[in-house]
Specification:
The protein has 414 residues and is mainly alpha-helical. It has 16 helices and no strands. It is 82% helix and 0% strand.
């Protein structure tokens, strides 16, 4: 009995979850500090809000789009190598941004370094987690990507303190060193497959005949992306992403436009982080109980309603309510999405399939925040981009609802 308890306590899958948590904390936490740098960069380079927002959009596009490359590479070479390279690139990008002489060099350093770095690390880290669990896959996936929420909570206020204390250039350098050290250290713990340790998913003993061959029912990337399920999931994620990432860039400047002090405005990103962390920690297990595909639909619809709160908010506490609820729904969405992919298509090529799916998020991230910035420059208001984000999430929810009904009919006929 003692030996069994000990084995359960040290099941290596939870170390993989911890490593993925740290990788997402460093990568996305660094990315979401960008809102704290908007005002200093505008002042330093005389750039418009739309032009500065494009830096984040470029990085976001790259770190989601690159999953189409990093996912299959991780399936073949292992997540550890990809994540180490990615964390080094994140650190280098932030450090190089600290010596930028114009906004184009910020694009090159931050946009490419952060974008390519997170792109190499994110899908491999999250994909590795999926193979270690079945019964508690939603919970494990939620804990792994909760690093994004904790990073959103911790890193923007840290960036604001560093900017106030040492200026934006030294702040970028400090964040770069921190990202490289923590990120590489965590990446060393990643392993792709429990079979490498003689285990099945959830820490169960691996049957002797199962050591060499993966499950035969798993789909290839080519076969998976041709299914109606994948096409619907891709379309829904693409459309939802046009609005989902707008608050991460524009909530802080919007709050400042309403007369809220910079320190309080930056705290709103931290509130998103609190909500996101709560969503990933607590909603992942709920998804396991209610059905992960149904839960995904609920989060997308809920995101639309939270954005309505942003549209009508006029003060700090209303914005804080929006930030928490939005963060919780966003956290649940991000937590359950890789698990849904694993449920639908199997684990042999899960990294590659997730990578293809995340190209949808990449296009939404590229277009949404920058379009919102240019819309603000033209109208001096965020009303139109916020309402567009509401509509996008409602349309995405409709696509998932129709797809779910089609799947049920197909199962019944089969």
């Amino acid at each position: 009995m003692t030996t069994l308890v000990f084995k359960q306590r040290v099941f290596y899958g939870w170390w993989v979850v911890a490593a993925a948590f740290a990788v997402t904390f460093v990568g996305f936490g660094s990315a979401y500090t960008f809102s704290a740098f908007i005002e200093p960069l505008q002042r330093e380079f005389g750039a418009s809000r739309g032009a500065v927002s494009l830096v984040f959009s470029l990085a976001g596009f790259l770190y989601f789009a690159l999953g189409i490359v990093s996912g299959p590479l991780a399936d073949r070479w292992g997540a550890r190598r990809l994540c180490i390279a990615g964390m080094l690139l994140v650190g280098a990008g932030l450090a190089l941004a600290s010596v930028a002489r114009n906004i184009v060099e910020v694009y090159a350093a931050y946009g490419l370094g952060e974008g390519l770095g997170v792109g190499l690390a994110y899908v491999p880290a999250v994909g590795a987690v999926q193979r270690w669990f079945v019964k508690r896959r939603g919970l494990a996936s939620g804990l792994a990507v909760s690093g994004i929420g904790v990073g959103t909570l911790a890193m923007p206020p840290l960036a604001a303190l560093l900017i106030d204390g040492m200026g934006w250039r030294d702040a970028y350098l400090t964040l770069g060193v921190l990202a490289a050290v923590l990120g590489v250290g965590a990446s060393l713990l990643l392993e792709n497959d429990p079979r490498e340790r003689g285990l099945a998913a959830d820490g169960e003993p691996l049957p002797a005949h199962a050591h060499a061959a993966p499950p035969s029912g798993d789909l290839s990337v080519r076969d998976a992306v041709r299914t109606r399920q994948f096409i619907s999931l891709y379309a829904a994620c693409l459309i939802a992403s046009f609005g989902v990432f707008v608050p991460f860039v524009h909530l802080v400047p919007h709050a400042q436009d309403l007369g809220i002090a910079q320190g309080s405005a930056v705290l709103l990103l931290g509130v998103i982080g609190i909500g996101s962390t709560a969503g990933r920690f607590f909603l992942g297990s709920l998804a396991d109980r209610m059905g992960r595909q149904r839960f995904l639909l609920c989060t997308v619809i809920a995101l639309a309603f939270t954005l309505v709160i942003w549209a009508v908010a006029t003060g700090f506490w209303m914005l804080a309510l929006f930030a928490f609820l939005f963060g919780a729904c966003y956290g649940g969405w991000v937590a359950v999405l890789p698990a849904v992919v694993m449920d639908l298509f199997g684990g042999r090529n899960v990294g590659g399939i997730i990578g293809v799916l995340y190209t949808s998020v990449a296009f939404g991230t590229l277009i949404g925040p920058s379009a919102a910035g240019y819309a603000f420059d033209a109208s001096r208001s965020y009303t139109l981009p916020i309402l567009a984000a509401v509509a996008a999430n409602l349309i995405a929810g409709g696509i998932l609802m129709v797809a779910a009904r089609g799947t049920k009919r197909g199962s019944a006929q089969g």
